[in-house]
Amino acid sequence: MDFVEKSVQGISFLTSPHICALHAFTTRFGGVSQGIYASLNLGESRGDDPGAVRENYRRLKAALGIGKLCFTRQVHGNTVRYVTQADAREPYDPLPYEADGLVTDVPGLALICFTADCIPLLLHDPVKGVIAAVHAGWRGTVADIAGEGVRAMERIGSRPGDIRAAIGPGISACCFETGPQVPEAVTAVLGREGQAYIRDPGRGGEKYYVDLKGVNRALLIRAGVRPENIAVSGVCTVCQKETFWSHRATAGKRGVQGAVIALR
């Protein structure tokens, strides 16, 4: 099933029919930020006007009908942290932990992770009522943060076979050109299966194209998520840089989009 484009109170976002929990993959549209951050920038550390970022969050919360948010301070690792209401914060409040993924079973608590080419993963177990939001850059991907997200959900009662996953907009294989370091790391984590997600354009081993979405899907399956329960967005943030934030397409002069999920 394809992802669905929605607009609520001017906030534009995508959702996946695979996930029945409240969720959204935001776009660039619907905020008040100006210049290179126009308009729905959710990044606190990009140099944007803090007042504009706070207003962007106010609008996002109003559009989605959410209250308290738990944030990630992302370091391209594979830590997935269990959070409760005590971890909720407002933009620019101190964040005393580092984590590239969050998991909870607390109703009404929204989780958010941030991307601008990296791969966002939203996970939902509708049986036990558990959710996770995961940021998977290439380093986190090859460190199996997708599997860590599943295992974090298992620790609070989920069965992998019940988990629904949505792999959101991010850089696709068409634009993720890299040196040999990334393909070598993919092969290290997936073995020969990893070759399916690596394309060699014939440049003497200097450049490759890697499908990070495919790698994360394979790691979710290895962790026990059923293939039919995984939706993968075909959106490449580099190709659609007018709609989504892309670090590569803007040479780092950009804002941040969010992947949000909450139990009703």
In short:
The chain contains six helices and 15 strands. The chain has helices at 50-64, 138-142, 145-154, 181-190, 212-222, 247-250; strands spanning 4-8, 11-15, 22-26, 69-70, 80-82, 101-104, 110-115, 119-125, 130-136, 164-167, 177-178, 198-199, 208-210, 230-232, 257-262.
The total of beta strands comes to: 15
Strand order of the largest sheet: 1-2-3-15-7-4
* Main pleated-sheet profile: 6 strands, mixed
Low-confidence stretches: none
Helix and strand string, N-terminal first? EEEHEEEEEEHHEEHEEHEHE
What's the CATH C level? Answer: Alpha Beta
Q: What is the level-2 CATH architecture name?
A: 4-Layer Sandwich
Structural class of the secondary elements? Answer: alpha+beta
Gyration radius, rounded: 17 Å
First and last CA, distance: 22 Å
Task: Annotate the secondary structure layout.
Layout: E1 4-8, E2 11-15, E3 22-26, H1 50-64, E4 69-70, E5 80-82, E6 101-104, E7 110-115, E8 119-125, E9 130-136, H2 138-142, H3 145-154, E10 164-167, E11 177-178, H4 181-190, E12 198-199, E13 208-210, H5 212-222, E14 230-232, H6 247-250, E15 257-262
Parallel strand pairs: 4-7, 5-6, 10-14
Antiparallel strand pairs: 1-2, 2-3, 3-15, 6-9, 7-15, 8-9, 8-10, 11-13, 12-13
Helix pairs in contact: 3-5
